[in-house]
Amino acid sequence: MHPAPSVILFTSLSGLGFGLLVWLGLGVLAPTGWVAFVFFTIAYLLAVGGLMASTFHLGHPERALKAFTQWRTSWLSREAWASVAALVLMALYGAGLVFFASRWAVLGYLGAALSLLTVITTSMIYAQMRTVPRWNNPTTPAMFLSYSLAGGALLAGEVTIAIWLLTIAVVAQVAHWVVGDRALAGSGTTIASATGLGDRGAVRSFEPPHTGTNYLMDEFIHVVGRKHRVTLRAIALISGLLMPSLILLAGVGHLLAAVAVLLHLVGVFASRWLFFAEAEHVVGLYYGKR
Amino acid sequence: MAKDQPQLDTSPHVSDEVRKTTCYMCACRCGINVHMKEGKVAYIEGNRDHPVNRGVLCAKGSAGIMQVNAPSRLRAPLKRVGPRGSGEFEEISWDEALEIATGWLKPLRETAPEKLAFFTGRDQSQSFTGLWAQSFGTPNYAAHGGFCSVNMAAAGIYTMGGAFWEFGQPDWDHTKLFLLFGVAEDHDSNPIKMGIGKIKERGARMIGVNPIRSGYNAVADDWIGITPGTDGLLIMALIHELMKAGKVDLDYLAQFTNAACLIDSDPNSDSHGLLLKDSEGQPQVIDRRTGQVAPWNGEGVQPDLSATDRHAGITHRPVFHAMAERFLDPQWAPDAVAGKTGISADRIRALAAELARVAFDEAIELDRAWTDFRGVTHPKMIGRPVSMHAMRGISAHSNGFQTARALHTLQILLGSVETPGGMRFKPPYPKPHTAHPKPHCKVTPGAALDGPHLGYPQGPEDLCLTETGGPARIDKAFSWDNPLSAHGMMHMVISNAHAGDPYRIDTLFLYMANMSWNSSMNTRQTMHMLTDTDENGDYVIPRIIYSDAYSSEMVAYADLVLPDTTYLERHDCISLLDRPICEADAVADAIRWPVVDPDRDVRAFQSVLCDLGARLNLPGFVTEDGSQLYADYADYMTNHIRRPGIGPLAGWRVGEHGLQHGRGAPNAGQIDSYIRNGGFWMEHIPEGAAYYKPFNSAYQDWAVQMGFYDSPQPYIFSLYSEPLRRLQLAAEGTGAHQPPEHLRARLQTHMDPLPFWFEPLGDETAEGYPLHALTQRPMAMYHSWGSQNAWLRQIHGVNPLYVPTKIWKAQGFAEGDWAVVISPAGSITVPVAHMAALNENTVWTWNAIGKRKGAWALDADAPEATKGYLLNHLIHELLPEKGDGMRWSNSDPVTGQAAWFDLRVKIAKSPAPQEAQPAFGSVGSPVPDATETLAWKVGK
Amino acid sequence: MTALPETTDRKLGLVIDLDTCVGCHACVISCKGWNTENYGAPLADTDPYGADPSGTYLNRVHSYEIQPNDGPAQLVHFPKSCLHCEDAPCVTVCPTGASYKRSEDGIVLVNEQDCIGCGLCAWACPYGAREMDPAAGVMKKCTLCVDRIYNENLPEEDREPACVRTCPAGARHFGDFADPDSHVSKLTADRGGMDLMPEQGTKPVNQYLPPRARDAQMQPPALKPVAEDAKGFVGWLDKALSRVGGG
Ligand SMILES: Nc1nc2c(c(=O)[nH]1)N[C@H]1C(S)=C(S)[C@@H](COP(=O)(O)OP(=O)(O)OC[C@H]3O[C@@H](n4cnc5c(=O)[nH]c(N)nc54)[C@H](O)[C@@H]3O)O[C@H]1N2
Ligand SMILES: Nc1nc2c(c(=O)[nH]1)N[C@H]1C(S)=C(S)[C@@H](COP(=O)(O)OP(=O)(O)OC[C@H]3O[C@@H](n4cnc5c(=O)[nH]c(N)nc54)[C@H](O)[C@@H]3O)O[C@H]1N2
Ligand code: SF4
Ligand code: SF4
Ligand code: SF4
Ligand code: SF4
Ligand code: SF4
Ligand SMILES: [Mo]
Question: With 0-12 CB in 10 A as exposed, 13-18 as middle and 19+ as buried, what is C203?
Answer without folding.
Answer: middle
